Amino acid sequence: MSDRLSATPHPSPNFGERRNGALPDLVVLHYTGMASCDAALERLCDPVAEVSAHYLIRENGEILALVPEAARAWHAGAGSWGGREDVNSHSIGIEIANTGDAPFTAWQMAALEPLLAGILGRWSIPPERVIAHSDMAPTRKSDPGPRFDWRGLARVGLAVWPEVAMTPPDEAGFLAALTRFGYPEATPEQLLRAFRLRFRPWAKGGLSEGDMGAALDLARRFPVDGGSRRA
After folding, report:
1. Dihedral, 111, 117, 118, 124 alpha carbons, nearest 10
2. For 57, what's the count of Cα atoms within 13 Å in the CB-facing half-sphere?
3. pLDDT in tens, 54-90
């Protein structure tokens, strides 16, 4: 595929076999959260650090291929999605060079789109299973953060975005909707924060009508099935 041919090989030693014959059925997006892409690359390839990803996208849009897609990279850590543990065995991880408090560059987004399209096509992954690191680990992660353009990815069919109908807030209903969409267990405050990081980064205060409507729409249109895919 053209997106793989355009990636610059930079192999990381930090990977293993996917466990129990699992195949990728998730894509997890990250920011590096480091001062430079070179510093992130060094860490992702350092065997002592024991972290990696399948791809790293530089600020200028260059894609670095670190781990083969069929292998298990070490990018997700503790967390789950749709009740699935060991996200590393079921996902492909993409790191995007970003300090965590800056906009992502147009070159990065232009590189990410064909890369994602190729991954989804190769592994038959639907766009609702492209998630944030903060989605699967809401108690400890914030990436790719509020500056990432999820809505833009959804416009080109590479992620999902809610259709918001203002709905009276109900905490129990909100949490049930997030569980149905895929979010793991966490406190109501942590889940609201993670949900807003991705879908409503401008929102403030307590649970709102917009939060409620967005969560219900995602749960209705994209309920997670929790099923595993194996080779």
Report:
1. 160
2. 26
3. 999 999 999 999 999 999 999 999 999 999 999 999 9
The pLDDT, as a whole number, for residue 225 is 74
Residues 6+ apart with CB under 8 A from 41: 10, 56, 64
Active site residue 59: no
Alpha-carbon span 72 to 122, nearest angstrom:
16
What DSSP assignment string belongs to 170-215?
-HHHHHHHHHHHT--S--HHHHHHHHHHHH-TT--SS--HHHHHHH
Burial environment of residue 9 by CB neighbours within 10 A (0 to 12, 13 to 18, 19 or more): exposed
Q: Which of 17, 42, 95, 113 is catalytic?
A: 95
Instruction: Return the pLDDT at 1.
Output: 36
Q: How far apart are CA 148 and CA 104, in angstroms?
A: 7
Quickly state the pLDDT bin for 229 (edges 50, 70, 90): low
Ranges of each domain in the chain = 2-155, 171-221
Domain at 2-155: CATH architecture: 3-Layer(aba) Sandwich (3.40)
- Please work out, in degrees rounded to the nearest 5, the angle formed at the alpha carbon of residue 222 by the alpha carbons of 175 and 30: 80
* Residues β-bridged to residue 94: 29, 55
**In this predicted model, what pLDDT tens digit does every residue of 162-175 receive, in sequence order?**
998 999 999 999 99
- Pair 90, 131: CB distance under 8 Å: no
Q: Is the peptide bond before 103 cis (omega within 30 degrees of 0)?
A: no
